[in-house]
Amino acid sequence: MKKIIAILLTVAVALFVFTNLYSGDSDFKAFGEKSLEETVSKEFVNKTVDPQRVQPETGSANIVTSIVVNYRGFDTMGEVTVLFVSALGVALLGGVLRKKVTFRYKPGFIINQGMKIIVGIILISGIYIFVHGHLTPGGGFPGGAMIGSAFLLMYLSDDKFRTRIAAFKVLEGLAGSLIMIVGLVGLSTGGYFLYNFLPNGEIGQLLSAGIVPVLYVLVGLKVGSEVSNILGDFFIGEVEE
Amino acid sequence: MMDILVFFLTGFGALFSILRIILGPSVADRAAALDTMNVIITGLIVFLAHVFESSLYLDIAIIYGVLAFLETVVFSRYLEVDPK
Amino acid sequence: MRKFLSAFVVFWLIWSVLSGFRMQDVLIGAVVSLVLSFVVSRYLSFSFDFRIFYKVFLFIVIYIPVFLYRMVLANLDMARRVLSPSIPLNPGFVKVKTKIKSKTGKLTLANSITLTPGTMSVEVDEETIYVHWVDVQGEEKEEYSKEISGSFENILGGIFR
Amino acid sequence: MTIIGYFFLLVGASFYALGGLGMFRMPDVFNRLQAGTKATTLGTISLLFGVGMLHPEWMLKILLIIVFLTITNPVSSSTLARSAYLAKVKTKTKKDDLKLLLNGDDDDD
Fold it and tell me: What domain range includes position A18?
């Protein structure tokens, strides 16, 4: 019965979406017919690549990154704070529940040895992803998730690896405070929080786009260490604070 | 023309893995089919890099490959977790 | 110390391949790999010395051609099985002995067994590899070993002592 | 160069199709894993090498992806096979020398 209702609901939603998309007088334009001239995105593209400007406004080759970290930098800081609060919640609950994840069998030899090679590749490519966040797709959040996933792999595939890496607690706090400090330096030099006080440089170089790469590296470090801390809380099951 | 043929063949492989994900009698079957499909998609992303002439897609392929591997390992360890 | 240096070299190499060989990238990559290998190198098994050049040379020149050849054979074999109307199968789990001591060597051997005709390694022990075989032939352990891992055993035994 | 590249692309894509088909037709999980892993690994190597032939300036990065996938793909399928064996998934396997693996491996950490 439940399944039939689910199928009926799915069909109803699908019909609604399709009729709205394909009827002639709907608000949604057909693919490729929407004019981008009247939207706000053109303005942001121009700010970055317009050759008439003396200096590009953000200098970031990836426009999405320039919006996420430069124009909406304060918002990104809020997102990182949300992650921090959830990590704190997991740590507190982990102390109350004291229930560990237990496996019936030890991890096998193949995954145990394979992990010791693969984790290195995952970690360095995760760091590559967030250092190059202003040049390539990606950035702080995917890179941090990759670092967290590398530590999840270590917890899963090595039953000796139960020691929490103490450096992460330090790293998390350090990255969070450095984001604030970068914002405050902007406040004191330019007049508002997270002001871009570094030179923009040339688009496409690694050292360009002002404070965007700095902030993204910090965000990546913070996300990675937080995810690793959450996983550590789940696997070790107790907190000492 | 050749591109369409390549897309057709890869889509054929992905389609049958999806069928196995739907039909698969046990969790292990589904996880195995998911692993196969993920590798096929990783290859497809690299092929998209060639179609769109942009090397940025290679980074996405790396991320996708890493997460696909992790997903399989997590599923296989999940099969071993104590049920009580 | 040896682990630290080896991890540093591997990280730097991967970073440079990923980001391209420009000056800024290579320098920042050096800093990043230094920090990263300082943190995680003791959990990893990157460990080699100067004989690595000789080993990599042997690996590329001898192992990879044999491996690719066997892999193509494996796929043709698998294609034959998949495409025939009644799938010819005689599956079974068998044990294979190995003499390789090095852990990375055993891992490589297990991976090679997985990718060669009709076999897939399931678990590795001190000196035994447990293998799932699509088409079991023969009866004795020695026969299995010769059939499944004979050529790789010799090559990898020469590379990873 | 272009022709060789497209040849590799087609070979890789056909192995992907074969892998999917094998995943669908084989009778139990171990045989499915065998078919899937072998076909997709060779398919990936071939397809990625084809793309590298068409764009020689990406060759190094593509070789890195190939190495990474060639390490991870057998590892993940071996791990999955071991877990499926330990979880006692139904098989059509007749011969079984692996009983030892199940004994004395209990660990409640």
Answer: 1-33
